[in-house]
Amino acid sequence: MRTKYTTSIIIVFFLLSGLVLNSVFAMPIDPEKETSLSDFALQEKLISDPEKTNPPVSPPASVFYEGIDNGRENIDAFSPIRRTNSNIFSPSQAQHSSEVDAVVASLIQETVVGSSPWQQLNEDGFGDNNFQIPSLQEFNGDLYAGTWKDNDEVSSAEVWRTIDGGGWEKVDEREYSGCADLIVFGTYLYCGSWDGAIWRSEDGINWADVVTDGFGDSNNGIARFAVFDGMLYAGTWNGTTGTEIWRTDDGTNWDIFGDGLDPNNIAVGAISTEVFGGYLYWGLVNWETGAQLWRTDGITLTKVSQGTSAAISSLAAFDGFLYSGIWDEVSTQVWRSDDGIDWEYVLTFSDLGSGMREANGLEVYDNMLYLVGANPDNGLEVWRTSNGSDWELSASMGFGDTSNAWSYWDNAITNFGGKLILGTNNFSTGGEIWGYEPNEYEVYDVEMWLNLGVKDWIWGNAKPGLEVTITTPRDTIHTFADPGCNGCFGISEPIEINAGDTISVTAGDAIYPVDFTLPTPLLFNARSDTEEVWGQIGGRSGDLVQVNGFWEDGY
């Protein structure tokens, strides 16, 4: 029986050599990626209450630990790795240490390696001010992501790519207002911006401009691409003179298509598309008179539906129906049609207790229809259905960060490498890319906060809706994986957990239990005279570890 899960251990206790370790924050690390200990570091943070027993306020997360064997007795799998960090202690404390070589090693639990089906695939904002990731597209076996970068001085569009969903490289950057959509047409990958530019690449590295002036109208931005019947289409965003549809058969020579979309009631943007039943459908935004649906057979462009909500945010063909996700100020709605003309109401998500509203996207993955919806209050949500009628929650609360409030319609959702991939907009820490791949595991991750005495906490994530059982040598606790927070679970009162304890966490039918034993002894060592710190802690560069001097004269 496999037990492949992740456990992170957050340790709080007194050190041996005149220092106090108050907390180790273990943050997400992709269990499939090799992690170098040279990326780990310690940072100083003074606290006023070293006896604090409450667990840290941070979302449960999967952590992968590497093991190192240095042959020391009782500290199996640890070895000091020196890293200079002059900010750990102030120069005014030179009598103790003006510069500490932070030493971090990590513990491997052979039977506890795994992760949640949802995993973040990039560094927030790609390590920069890429606050929006509005577009994703597979091209020649690689996944490409378009961003909108804003550094308060210059807005730019960046294009990044990865071969495996792990390591990313930037392949293009230019001073346009974001890469709003990406699409493959012929042998080229195309990108369009909110200020009306289109550029393309045949190899993903070398890019060339195709359109730079919004098709002659500075009000035109590129909202959405589509390929239909041998032609590339571009729908614009234009709140001044109204949205337009342009098309090309060679990628360079473009012509306007149709006589305009309801010129008497200006549609602001053509933001969603889908090919269904021999037609290309366009979903439109109209703030004044309501959403519109248009379609073409490649010859004529016809309006087929008029709504009262602001926009048809998304379109997807699934199981014989064309589905539409409705942008509504109160709650996201879903409608469907088997002919594109006559539409039936499916549901309003507020009826399921969801706070989703406004922007949403649809994508078919693994024989199910997924909807990614904005929740400006609590973070974006992901719902899915196998039959179009019965929907279940797959992710919520912006994957633990409520700043992941929304995603760009259908543009930012795709399939790649057997996973469902989506991009978020995050104006706090930067846009994120998340991948979903189902697994059989019932418990996704387990985390701890350890103190002296009966002051220990344990929490984690499991498959939403399941009962969770936590078993220690002293306690058996029954709790619940709350669907409202991605299956988070915890305990209501602190318990006692000691070095050497064997702990089991199960959920549901307990087919895949998380069984692990805490190392004994649990040791963390620090020497201010040699400027070394080492022991059983985990984390990576940028994580917070609180290390405080413990001397008679104070810090």
Word description of this protein:
This protein has about 550 residues and is mainly β. The chain has a domain of about 170 residues. A hairpin with a 6-residue loop joins strand 25 and strand 26. The strands form twelve sheets. A four-stranded mixed beta sheet has the order 1-34-35-38, with no helix packed on it. A four-stranded antiparallel beta sheet has the order 6-33-32-31, with no helix packed on it. A four-stranded antiparallel beta sheet has the order 7-8-9-10, with no helix packed on it. Helix content is about 0%, strand content about 40%. The N terminus is likely disordered.
Enumerate the spans where pLDDT stays under 50 for 5 or more consecutive residues: 1-114, 538-552
Helix amount, in percent?
A: under 10%
Shape: globular
Provide the structure class. mainly beta
Could you give the count of β-strands? Answer: 43
Q: What does the average pLDDT come to? A: 76
End-to-end distance = 50 Å
Beta content: 35-45%
Radius of gyration: 26 Å
